[in-house]
Amino acid sequence: MNVAIVCTALLGLLLFVLGLMVSVTRGNTRTNFGYNTDPTDRLYKLVRAHGNTAEYAPILAVLYLLLAAHDPAGWVRSTIWATTAFRFMHVIGIIGFPTLAKPNPLRFIGALGTYFGGIALCVAAFTAA
Fold first, then answer.
1. Of 24, 75, 83, which is closest to residue 59 (Cα–Cα)?
2. 3-128 architecture in CATH?
3. CB-based contacts of 8: which residues, under 8 Å, 6+ apart?
4. Are 61 and 109 in contact (CB under 8 A)?
5. Which of 27, 39, 114, 129 is 20 to 30 A away from residue 106, measured at CA?
6. pLDDT in tens, 41-50
């Protein structure tokens, strides 16, 4: 199994499922444009989860595939898995809790894991160059 391809597909699936959820919620709430910025509003949380995923998924996918082309070390493959899991954890932390007004452990750990994993993958890409 190619870890980089599987994790890239998972990030893509996450992005498109979130996009679909935003569209369905817009239809259900008859909100064609914009959203209520109430941190407890479902549409707001979905829009933020989708937007945040759209910010990180593309560069992570590029890093995953770039590194996979250079026969990555075991720690790199593990970091790819972990960073993908952290992205999912972050999304659950956004949409799975009652409000965005308060921090929660899933959102925090998911974000922190994304930062450290992403930085580690960037370092790996520099060394593969």
1. 83
2. Up-down Bundle (1.20)
3. 60, 61, 64, 65
4. no
5. 27
6. 999 999 999 9
In the chain, what is the straight-line distance between the N-terminal and C-terminal CA atoms, in Å? 24
Amino acid identity of 69? A
Do residues 31 and 43 lie in contact, with contact meaning Cβ atoms separated by under 8 Å? yes
86 in Cβ contact with 117 (< 8 Å): yes
User: pTM score > 0.85 for this model?
Assistant: yes
pLDDT single digits (tens) 59-107: 999 999 999 999 899 999 999 999 999 999 999 999 999 999 999 999 9
In the chain, the amino acid numbered 50 is H
Q: Which two tokens mark 23?
A: 């569209």
